[in-house]
Write a structure and sequence with these properties.
The complex is a heterodimer of chains A (348) and B (533).
Chain A: E1 2-7, H1 13-37, H2 42-53, H3 57-82, H4 90-107, H5 112-141, H6 145-165, E2 188-190, E3 193-194, H7 196-213, H8 215-225, H9 227-232, H10 237-264, H11 275-286, H12 290-312, H13 317-337, E4 340-345
Antiparallel strand pairs in A: 1-4, 2-3
Helix pairs in contact in A: 1-13, 2-12, 3-7, 3-10, 3-11, 3-12, 4-5, 4-6, 4-10, 4-11, 5-6, 5-10, 7-8, 7-12, 8-10, 11-12, 12-13
Chain B: H1 2-14, E1 23-32, E2 35-45, E3 50-55, H2 61-68, E4 76-81, E5 84-86, H3 91-96, E6 99-102, H4 114-119, H5 131-145, H6 160-173, E7 178-182, H7 190-205, E8 209-213, H8 217-223, E9 226-231, E10 234-240, H9 246-254, E11 277-287, E12 293-303, E13 307-311, H10 318-324, E14 333-338, E15 341-342, H11 348-353, E16 356-359, H12 363-367, H13 374-378, E17 389-390, E18 393-394, H14 396-409, H15 426-440, E19 444-448, H16 456-471, E20 475-479, H17 483-489, E21 492-497, E22 500-506, H18 512-519
Parallel strand pairs in B: 3-8, 3-9, 6-7, 7-8, 13-20, 13-21, 16-19, 19-20
Antiparallel strand pairs in B: 1-2, 1-4, 4-5, 9-10, 11-12, 11-14, 14-15, 17-18, 21-22
The chains are: A mainly alpha (348), B alpha/beta (533).
The structure holds adenosine-5'-triphosphate and magnesium ion (MG).
C-alpha cells in the first residue's frame, strides 16, 4: 500500500467545510503561540473574546450589524466577477449609496412609508452612478475597471468626510463630524439588528437563484468566462457586462444606505469602515458561490468583532490585523488544499 | 552528413539491448476521478530516435507526457532518466533534467519579443538584460540550433509556424536532450511542417531524442524511427516504423479495422441537391483582426444537400470566410444570403436562427469557455430553447441531460458533467463542439478544420456526420487543408489563395495536382465548374 496525494477537479462540500474549519483552528493556534510569547494571558483573552462575541446578546447583535454590509459588498464583488470584472470600488459605491440615501432622508419631507423606500432607491442609484463611468470605460474603451473603480473609492470616502463636516454638519451642535440623526430608520427586529440583515441574505439567495436558474444567468456565466465564446454564441457580452457591473454598484450602494439608515443613523466620516475592501475578501473566499458569500461575510464579521474585543483588552491594532491576515491566509490555503485528496494505491 | 547520422540513429534503434535509453517509463499509471488515463505503461526512448506516440482521442498521450515533464505526478510506476529513477515536482525540474515539451497551445507571452520569450524564466539569462544583448544571444542560439527566428520580432506578429519555432528554441536553449511535441503539425502549413521535420532530424542526429504525438499517420511514417501505440490508457505495442503501414497503425489504435469508404456516394433516399443555393456570398470582402483585407471580393454558392470543400494553405482567408458566413465578422463590402434572405448586416444570433451551425477553427478560444463545466459548454447553442429554458427560466437538470445525450452521440465519455471542459482531451472537446453544432445546422454547417486533432476513427465518424447532414439536405461548407479529406468528401472544391477564390471545381473532374497548383495561386478560369458566378 502506498499513500498518494491527488488533485481533484471539484471539491466536495464536506471537504470544503472541514478544510476551512481546520484552517481557522490552525490560524488561532498560531496566533495563540505568538500571544504566548508576548506574555499575554491566553485563557483570559480567549474567554473574553468568546464571551464578548458569542456569549452576549450585544456581541451577537454586533455580529449581525457587521455582517449586513459585508454580505452585500461581498455579493457586489462576487457578481461582478461572474461577468469577469473586478469591482475593487465597492468602498466608493458604498459611500455614494450612503450619501444619496442621506440626502433623501435629510431633504425630502414626508412620512416613513414614502421616504424610506425612496432612500433604498437613492442608495442603489448612488452606487450605480458611482460605477457608471468605470463600467462604460470598460465596456466601450476596454479601460481596466480595476484602476478606475479603485480610484473612485478615494473620491467617495472624501466626499463623505466633506459633507459630514461641512455643509451637512449636524446643526444642533451635538456632533462635530457627522450629520444630524436621520429622521428615518430601517426598522429593527432584534435589539439593534435591523431588517437589513435578512434583506441582505435574501438578496444573496435571490442572486444565486437568478444566476443558476435563469437564461440570463447562464449568459452572464458564459460572457464572464470567455467573451469570444459569447460573441460566437450571439450572447451580448457588452450588455451583460454593463448590466452586471451596474447591479454590482447598486448592491454596494444599498450596503451604504443600510449602514447609514439602519446602523449608524447618521452620515459620518469613515462610515464605509473598509467594508468595501473586506467585501473583496468575502468574494474571494466565496469562490463564486452565493452561499459562500453569506458564510464568508459571517466569518469576516466574527474576525472583525473579535478584533474589536481584543483591542478593548489592550491588544494593539496591528496585532489584530495580523491575526485577521493569518486566518485569511490559512483559509485561502485550505481552499486550495481541499482540492486534493489522499488516496491509497496498491503498489504494483 | 545528416544522412549518416540518421543511419547511426537507425543502428542505435536496432541494437536496443546495448544502448541505455534516455528515458524509461515503467508501469506508469494515472487516474482521474472516473477515468483511467494511463495504466501499466512501459516506454523506452533511445538516444538518436524520433519516437511517435499514437492513440485515439483520450487514449492518454498528453497525460503520459505531462507526467514525464513534471506537470502531473504518476499515481504508480517509475520514471527513469539515464538509468536513475527521478520524480519531477514541476516542469522546471524536468527541463533541468533535459526534458522539454512544446504543448499544442503555445505558452508564449504575445506582447514580448522573441528574444524576451526565450530568456523568460531562465536561470542563464544574464543579469543585465539589455535589448541588443538578449537579441544577440538569441540569434547565436538560433544559429547554433539551426532554427530560423527573428530575435527582435514581437510574438503576436509571428505566424503559427514561427511561434512554434520559438517554443522549440526555448526548450532546446535549455539544453534539452528530449523534445516532446504534442500534435505539432496540426496548425502548420505543409511547408512549415517540412521545415519542422528537418529541424527534428538534425536534433535527433546529435544523439538527442524526440517524442512526437500526432494523428496524421503519413507524417508518423515519414518522420519516426519507432512507434508506440496507446489504447484506453494502456500500451498496445512499440515497433519500428519500418514494419508499419497506415492501415495497420489505424487498426492498432482503434482496435478494429477502419474502413475508408468513398463518401461521395449518396444514399438512394438522400435529398437531392437543391437548384437554389442555401447560402450565397457575393463579392464579399472582410478585414482580419489587424485591419488587413483578408477576404477579397469572394463569391461562392452552397446548395442544400452538397458538401463544398474549401481548400488552401491555412491563413489564406479561410478563418475570415467562416466567420463572415456565421455572422461573427462584419463584411467590409458585398453580400451574404442564407435561404434567399439577406444577412449581410446580421449578427451571429440571426445566423444561428437561420439554421447555420459553426465549428470554429480555434475551439478553445471561441468555441468553448474552458473554465466552465462540460454541461455549460455543450448546451451553449440550445440553452434558450425548450426544454432547457421556459421563458426566462433555465433548468440546469434539463441542461445536464441534454449534455449527456450529446456526449453519448459524440461517443465522448465524460466522468463528471460538472468538471471544467478543459479537463477533456483535445480531441474529445472537438467532438463535442461538432455534435453540438450539427444539432442546430438545419440549413448550413460551416466547419473550419473540424478534423484537426481527431484520431482516424473520429475523422471517419466526423465525415459520416457530414454525410448524414448532406443527405438530410443541409449544405456543408468544409474547410480543410488535407486534400485527401477534401477529395473524399466534397462534391465541389473552392480553392483559396491570398483571400481570393482561385476557382471552384467539381471533385469528380479534378486531380490533386490541379488543386495543388491552385493553392499556389494559379487561377482556374470560369470555364470549369464556376460557371454559375
Ligand atoms: N485534469 C484532468 N482531470 C480529469 N480528467 C482528465 C484530466 N486530464 C485528462 N483527463 C482525462 O484523461 C483521459 C486522457 O486524456 P489525454 O488528454 O491524455 O488524451 P490524449 O490521448 O492526449 O487525447 P487527444 O488525442 O484527444 O488529445 C481523457 O479521458 C481525459 O478526459
Ligand atoms: Mg492530447
Amino acid at each position: 500500500m502506498a499513500i498518494r496525494i491527488q488533485r481533484v477537479p471539484s471539491e466536495s462540500l464536506a471537504g470544503g467545510v472541514a478544510a476551512r474549519l481546520v484552517a481557522i483552528v490552525l490560524a488561532l493556534v498560531v496566533a495563540a503561540i505568538v500571544f504566548a510569547f508576548t506574555g499575554a494571558d491566553l485563557g483570559k483573552l480567549g474567554s473574553h473574546v468568546l464571551k464578548s462575541t458569542f456569549g452576549s446578546r450585544f456581541g451577537l447583535m454586533d455580529l449581525g450589524l457587521i455582517m449586513t454590509p459585508l454580505t452585500l459588498t461581498g455579493l457586489a464583488v462576487m457578481i461582478a466577477l461572474k461577468v469577469g470584472a473586478w469591482n475593487i470600488g465597492a468602498e466608493g459605491q458604498f459611500c455614494a449609496g450612503a450619501f444619496a440615501a442621506t440626502a433623501v432622508a435629510l431633504f425630502v419631507p414626508g412620512p416613513n412609508v414614502v421616504v424610506l423606500p425612496l432612500m433604498f432607491v437613492a442608495g442603489a442609484l448612488g452606487g450605480m452612478i458611482w460605477i457608471l463611468i468605470p463600467t462604460l470605460a470598460r465596456a466601450y474603451a476596454d479601460v481596466s475597471e480595476l484602476i478606475t473603480t479603485l480610484l473612485l473609492n478615494f473620491v467617495g470616502v472624501l466626499l463623505i468626510y466633506y459633507v459630514a463636516t461641512g455643509p451637512w454638519l449636524d446643526p444642533s451642535g451635538v456632533s462635530f463630524a457627522s450629520t444630524a440623526r436621520l429622521p428615518h430608520d430601517v426598522p429593527s427586529f432584534w435589539g439593534d439588528v435591523h431588517w437589513g440583515l435578512p434583506l441582505a441574505i435574501l438578496l444573496t439567495i435571490a442572486v444565486a437563484a437568478v444566476l443558476n436558474f435563469t437564461r440570463w444567468g447562464y449568459e452572464v456565466r458564459i460572457a464572464g468566462s470567455n467573451p469570444n465564446a459569447a460573441r460566437y454564441a450571439a450572447i451580448p457580452f457588452r450588455r451583460h457586462l454593463i448590466v452586471v457591473m451596474l447591479m454590482s454598484g447598486a448592491i454596494a450602494g444599498l450596503a451604504g444606505m443600510l449602514e447609514a439608515a439602519g446602523t449608524a443613523h447618521r452620515l459620518q466620516g469613515g462610515i464605509s469602515n473598509n467594508f468595501g475592501y473586506i467585501g473583496i475578501m468575502v468574494a474571494v473566499l466565496a469562490r463564486g458561490s452565493a452561499i459562500g458569500v453569506i458564510a464568508g461575510a459571517a466569518l469576516m464579521a466574527i474576525i472583525l468583532k473579535s478584533g474589536i474585543s481584543l483591542q478593548t483588552q489592550g491588544v494593539n491594532i496591528s496585532t489584530v490585523l495580523a491575526i485577521t491576515g493569518l486566518i485569511l491566509f490559512f483559509t485561502a490555503l485550505a481552499d486550495e488544499l481541499s482540492h486534493y485528496r489522499i488516496v491509497r494505491t496498491k503498489e504494483a | 552528413m545528416t544522412m549518416n547520422m540518421m543511419l547511426n540513429a537507425g543502428e542505435a534503434v536496432a541494437s536496443e539491448t546495448k544502448v541505455q535509453p534516455i528515458v524509461r517509463l515503467k508501469g506508469i499509471a494515472k487516474y482521474f476521478p472516473g477515468v483511467v488515463a494511463n495504466q501499466d505503461v512501459d516506454f523506452d526512448l533511445l538516444p538518436g530516435e524520433i519516437h511517435a506516440l499514437l492513440g485515439e482521442n483520450g487514449a492518454g498521450k498528453s497525460t503520459l507526457m505531462n507526467m514525464l515533464t513534471g506537470i502531473y505526478r504518476p499515481d504508480m510506476g517509475e520514471i527513469v532518466i539515464d538509468g536513475s529513477a527521478v520524480s519531477f515536482a514541476s516542469p522546471v525540474e524536468a527541463i533541468a533534467a533535459g526534458i522539454g515539451m512544446v504543448h499544442q497551445h503555445f505558452k508564449l507571452v504575445k506582447a514580448f519579443t522573441v528574444a524576451e520569450n526565450i530568456h523568460l524564466g531562465w536561470k542563464e539569462t544574464p543579469r543585465r538584460i539589455a535589448r541588443d544583448l538578449l537579441e544577440a544571444r538569441t540569434a547565436e542560439l538560433a544559429a547554433s540550433l539551426n532554427l530560423a527566428v527573428a530575435p527582435g520580432a514581437r510574438v503576436s506578429d509571428l505566424s503559427t509556424g514561427e511561434q512554434q519555432r520559438v517554443e522549440i528554441l526555448r526548450v532546446l536553449s535549455r539544453k534539452a536532450r528530449v523534445l516532446i511535441l504534442d500534435e505539432p503539425t496540426a496548425v502548420l502549413t505543409p511547408a512549415e511542417a517540412a521545415e519542422l521535420f528537418k529541424a527534428l532530424r538534425q536534433f535527433a542526429a546529435r544523439g538527442n531524442a524526440v517524442i512526437f504525438i500526432s494523428h496524421k499517420l503519413d507524417e508518423v511514417l515519414e518522420i519516426s524511427d519507432r512507434v508506440t501505440v496507446l489504447r484506453g490508457g494502456r500500451k498496445v505495442t512499440t515497433m519500428p516504423t519500418g514494419e508499419c503501414d497506415k492501415r495497420m497503425l489505424a487498426r492498432l489504435m482503434v482496435g478494429q479495422e477502419v474502413v475508408l469508404s468513398n463518401m461521395r456516394e449518396r444514399r438512394p433516399d438522400a435529398k437531392p441537391v437543391s437548384p437554389q443555393p442555401v447560402l450565397s456570398l457575393r463579392d464579399a470582402s472582410a478585414r482580419d483582426d489587424l485591419g488587413n483585407m483578408a477576404l477579397k471580393r469572394v463569391s461562392l454558392e452552397l446548395r442544400a444537400g452538397e458538401i463544398l470543400g474549401i481548400a488552401g494553405v491555412a491563413g489564406n482567408g479561410q478563418k475570415e470566410l467562416s466567420q463572415v458566413l456565421t455572422g461573427i465578422r462584419a463584411l467590409a463590402s458585398g453580400q451574404v444570403e442564407i435561404c434567399g434572405k439577406d444577412l449581410s448586416r446580421a449578427g451571429a444570433e440571426e445566423f444561428a436562427a437561420f439554421g447555420v451551425g459553426h465549428i470554429p477553427e480555434d475551439r478553445l478560444q471561441s468555441g468553448l469557455a474552458p473554465a466552465l463545466s462540460v454541461t455549460d459548454n455543450v448546451v451553449i447553442r440550445e440553452y434558450g430553447k425548450a426544454p432547457l429554458s421556459k421563458g426566462w427560466v433555465y433548468r440546469p437538470s434539463a441542461a445536464t441531460s441534454l449534455a449527456r445525450s450529446i456526449a453519448e452521440a459524440a461517443s465522448v465519455r465524460v466522468p463528471d458533467f460538472g468538471m471544467p471542459v478543459r479537463n477533456l482531451s483535445g480531441g474529445n472537446q472537438q467532438r463535442l463542439v461538432a455534435r453540438r453544432e450539427m444539432r442546430i445546422a438545419a440549413n448550413v454547417l460551416v466547419a473550419a478544420y473540424p478534423c484537426r486533432g481527431l484520431d482516424v476513427g473520429a475523422i471517419n465518424a466526423m465525415m459520416r456526420y457530414f454525410i448524414e447532414l448532406r443527405d438530410a439536405g443541409v449544405g456543408v461548407l468544409f474547410v480543410s487543408e488535407e486534400l485527401e479529406e477534401l477529395l473524399k468528401l466534397s462534391d465541389r472544391i473552392a480553392v483559396m489563395f491570398h483571400g481570393e477564390v482561385m476557382g471552384v471545381v467539381n471533385t469528380s473532374e479534378v486531380d490533386i495536382e490541379t488543386i495543388g497548383l491552385m493553392m499556389g495561386g494559379q487561377r482556374r478560369g470560369p470555364a470549369g465548374a464556376t460557371a454559375e458566378n
